[in-house]
Write a structure and sequence with these properties.
Blueprint lengths: L6 E6 L16 H14 L3 E6 L18 H24 L5 E5 L8 E2 L2 H9 L3 E5 L9 H11 L4 E6 L4 E2 L11 E2 L1 E3 H6 L7 H9 L4 E5 L5 H6 L6 E4 L1
Parallel strand pairs: 1-2, 1-6, 2-5, 3-4, 3-5, 6-10, 9-11
Antiparallel strand pairs: 7-8, 10-11
Length: 238
């Protein structure tokens, strides 16, 4: 079956990587997600990934009360994304799938510096490309980095892994009457203040008409359904 999306950018939260998947099918969520990624890779989908660093560092004073400066906290967060990308790469390659880590700043002995041409070459060669280091600038989230890289590699879609099964009209963790929205436009999200990604990332993707699919990371087989174009999660598009 021909995939609905040839090239994707998958945005994952770092905070869930060390958790146990609900169905107990893998040692950690990272192992579970890699099995899911392996399925779409086998289907011929060119796959780029941006992973957050929240399992290591997220925000000022959460894990270290001595860190008070926002710039320093963001720099630590950028390094945390590199650690997660390296862990993910190692686990992917243990399954005989080639992968490469590209960073937004130079750490040449550890990973490649991001270069659009090199990234595209790796993707077309069948390698999974992990973009780490955010944008290399403080005050920008990994959502913004994901949107930027998606534009640079001409991704067909951004797929965002979440702890809920899609986009809701309000927080389903707080409101029992929250309704899942299978499909909505960028304007719908803006008018109803529905936060799919941070505002910078959202604006970039809206302007360039790249759809966003939100799905629950712990749902087995969901990535494969999304790339096949089947009804899965929620989709935001113009």
């Amino acid at each position: 079956m021909k995939p609905a999306y040839k090239r994707i950018l998958l945005k994952l939260s770092g905070e869930v990587l060390d958790e146990k998947p609900p169905d107990g099918s893998s040692k950690t969520m990272m192992d579970f997600i890699i099995n899911e990624v392996a399925q779409i890779h086998a289907a011929g989908v060119e796959t780029a990934i941006v992973i957050g660093g929240g399992n290591i560092m997220r925000g000022i004073n959460k894990d270290d009360e001595n860190i008070h400066d926002r710039v320093t906290a963001d720099q630590i967060g950028m390094l945390a994304t590199v650690i997660n990308a390296l862990k993910f790469k190692d686990a992917v390659e243990s399954r005989n799938i080639k992968a490469v880590v590209m960073t937004s700043f130079s750490i040449d002995s550890i990973a490649q510096r991001f270069n659009k041409s090199s990234a595209l070459e790796c993707l077309t060669d069948g390698k999974i490309v992990l973009f780490a280091g955010g944008t290399s600038n403080p005050f920008f989230s990994t959502d913004s980095a994901a949107a930027l890289r998606a534009l640079e590699i001409n991704a067909d879609v951004i797929i965002k892994g979440s702890n809920v099964d899609g986009v809701y009209d309000k927080d389903p963790g707080k409101f029992k009457d929250a309704k899942k929205l299978d499909e909505l436009t960028y304007n719908d999200a803006l008018e109803n203040d529905i936060r799919v990604l941070d505002q910078t990332a959202f604006a970039l993707l809206k302007d360039h008409k790249i759809p966003i699919v939100v799905y629950r990371m712990a749902d087995s087989g969901m990535l494969l359904k999304i790339i096949r174009g089947e009804k899965a999660g929620s989709i935001v598009r113009n």
